[in-house]
């Protein structure tokens, strides 16, 4: 296969060969969570997608050659508002959400990033960048507010592929008498009352959201780096503003060379968002079962395409993983606790043709299709084929649990406990007696989807875990 990686670069909306600035120092920055509420599965998609890209880059260039930075925004108007509403301190709120976020990352089998900086630990870097922008006449201060003057950056709108007038018309931009121009965005704002603040040349205040990522990416990856990622909703204004302030502060012709964005997750064909009130949190999914099921579901369509979430998608992914466990467990590769222990006894190289879809713009559906083909080969019982299949699954964060742990999560995920299962079986039997076969089949499928196998024995209906 071609050993080149190709990525769709939203700077020109074209798929391009990835050429790093330095093969020994590849940098990737991805916008992480604003920790005011628990992440939902829309937030989980970029976590999984860029985790896979991290793996692909390390596979090609070596683990020591790739630095992945994913920030945590722990100061923001939304955080302040929710802390006040809940009558709790900002620190207590952010600490709680950060802990939940890290639990969610473990649930999703994510590798930790190389660096995970918090915004509040980098205020000095932000003040320095603002001061530089003012000195270079790209920013101005009025009434203790500091704004970036957008008209002074001629490439503004290049990432969005829109002119300035269109961007202003199509977005909600803060109106303020402190601004010289409508489109200017805030770099520093004064804190009022008991809001958190830091001392600065412009008074007590706090940074603007866009500036935080520019300052942290500069510290850990330099003035210019290879890949910047995030959800498609961040293209404007967040990423557009990052480009403007970073290039002007750093005197560079580029900021990130490749801009990679994942599509939305929809729920009943509507964008999933906290502001819409139609979210499904990762924590809620934990009640359904294993994180690798959610992970597989999120990889089932290409990252650039929208993904409509529904229970059929979840159960289809769950049944696939169950089939894979059952198929290769004949050789007891998933006992005792760690399958990785067996794999480490003898390293197994994943064939290039299997990995090829991931090199081609992270084509996860193509890679999953290859996993199905590998799984079919395991039917012959050949030990090497089984090891290759397991290695290929592990590469994208699947089948990392022992069979014992997988069965536990399945049992835990059953929304139907024993008494409820018995009640459902009684209703199924009654429906069959009444010749309501549609209802009877519906209940049987519901039980099956929850990992429950129905048998008729000695005139009685009994159940067991599949």
Notes on the protein architecture:
The chain has helices spanning 41-61, 77-86, 90-107, 123-135, 164-169, 209-221, 235-250, 282-286, 291-298, 311-328, 339-345, 352-359, 364-377, 383-395, 403-413, 418-433, 437-449; strands at residues 6-9, 14-17, 26-30, 66-70, 139-142, 145-148, 185-190, 205-207, 225-231, 256-262, 265-267, 270-271, 307-309, 452-457, 460-465. It is an alpha/beta fold. α9 packs across α10.
Q: What's the CATH architecture name of the largest domain? A: 3-Layer(aba) Sandwich
* Arithmetic mean of pLDDT: 89
Roughly what fraction of the amino acids lie in strands?
A: 5-15%
Name of the CATH homologous superfamily of the largest domain: HUPs
Radius of gyration: 25 Å
Identify low-pLDDT runs. 335-345
Task: State the CATH topology of the largest domain.
Answer: Rossmann fold
Top CATH class of the largest domain: Alpha Beta
* β-strand number: 15
Strand order across the biggest sheet? 4-3-9-10
Helix content: 40-55%
Give the termini distance in whole angstroms: 39 Å
Give me the secondary-structure category.
alpha/beta
Oligomer: single chain
